[in-house]
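Now for today's protein:

——
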Amino acid sequence: MLRYFRILASLGFTILFLFFTISCATYYEKTQEFQEFVNKGEIEKANHWLHEQKKMENGKNRLLYLFGNGWTNWMLSNYDVSNESLNAADLMIEDQQKNLALEGLALVTNPSVKPYKPEDFEIVFVNYFKALNYIGLGKYDDALVECRRMNIRLYELNDKYKDRKNRYSDDAFAHVLIGLIYDATNDPNNAFIAYRNAFDAYNKIYLENFNTPAPDQLKLDLMRTAKEMGFNKELREYEELFKMQYKELNSDGGDLVFIWQNGFGPVKAEWSINLSIAEGQGGIVTFSNEDMGFSFPFFMGDLSAREQSSFSDLSFIRVAFPKYVERKPFFSNGKIVTGDNEVTLQVAEDINAIAFKTLQDRMIRELGSSLLRFAVKRSLEEAARQKDQDLGTVVSIINAITEKADTRNWQTLPNTISYHRIHLPEGKHNLKFVMESENGSKPHEFDVEITKGQTTFYTFQSIESYPISD
C-alpha cells in the first residue's frame, strides 16, 4: 500500500511539473507590451517597440512584424510607409515555401518553430489595408486593384482545398468597397455591379455563416445606382424586396463615406488533450483538459499489480490544438450626428465571426497535423523504450513539454467594420461620431471638407475592448 501511494505521489508530482512547464506564454502574452501601447492609443510607441524587435523583424515571425508595421503606420497616416510593409508581406505570402528541415523539426516539437503561415482572412486583409492606404493617398485605381485582389485571393485559397468546405469563400465587404470606389470615380455602372455582387454575398454566405445581413446603406446604394443607370425594372424589384422606397438625393453637395473599425479581433490560445499513464500490469490513467477545466485520475488494476510499477512505467500523452479567444469591443453601436440628424452605422464585416468559423473549417486539417505530430513523437518514445525503459519515460515527458499549438496571429485586425454614406452640403463640416456601450457613450469629433459631386472617405479605428476572457 505504501508503495502504491509513493507511485501515485510521484505520478502527481510529475503531472504538476508537466502542466506548469507546458503552460508557456501565448504569442499575445509575449507581445503584451506592444498590445498595451495599442490599447492606450500610443501608436508611435507601439511602432517603436516593433522596430526594436530585430529577432522578430528578421526571423520566423517576420510576417507578423510586417503586419504590425503596416497597421501602425496606417494608423499614423503614413500611407506610403504602411504599403511598403504590406507589399513586403504580400510578396512573402506568395513566396512562402515549405522548408523540409523545419517541417521535420515541427513534427518532433511544435508548429511554432516554422515561419508564420497566416490564416486565409489575414491574407485578404493585407489587400484591405493597402486599399485604405491608396484611398488615403487619393489613388483610387490602385485601391480598386487591391479590393479585387481580396476576392481573387480567396478564390485561389479555396481552390487548393480538396473539399472546398470553407465558409469564407467570398468577401462581401470587398465588393462594397469596390462599389464605393467606383462611385467615387463617377462610374455608376460598375458600382451597381459591385453592389449587386456584395448583396449576393451577404445573402448567400454572410447571413447564414457569420450572422451578418446586408447593411441598409448597401441597399440604398444599390437602388440609387440602378436609378442612375436607368435600370427601372431592377429598381422596382429592389424596392419590393427591401421594402424601402427610393428617394432622390439633392444633387448639390457631396458624399462622406464613414468607415468605423471597432475594437480588435480575437487572439489565439490553445486547448489540449492530456493523458498520463502508469503502466505495468495495472496502473493509473489521469485524464485532463485545461480548456474544460478538469483533471482526474482513473484507477486500473489491483494493488498487487501496482506493486510492479516504477518510473519507467510512466507515459505522457499530450495533443494541442489552436483556438480563438474573443476580445469583445467596448462599444456596441455607433452613430454620426449632423446637426439635428443622426445616422446609425451597421456592421458590414464581422472579422471576429469570420476568424472563429475559418478556424473551425480547417480543424480537420489541423487535427491531421496534430495527430501526425503525435504519431512521430510516440514512435520516438517507443524507440527509446526499446533501448532503455527510463529513457522512454524521459522522451515521453519531453514530447509532452514541447507539444504546443501555434498561437500566433495578426492581432491588430478590427473586430468589426461598419460604414455609412452621408450626403452633405459643399464646404467644411465639423461632425460628431458617437460610440455607445452599455456603460455610456463616447464622442469623436472630426473635420471633413466636402466638394460638390465628389466622395470623401474617413476611416476611424476605436481601440477600446474588454479584457480577454477565456
Notes: Residues 98-266+326-387+401-462 form a domain with the Serine Threonine Protein Phosphatase 5, Tetratricopeptide repeat fold (CATH 1.25.40.10). The first strand starts at residue 254 and ends at 262.
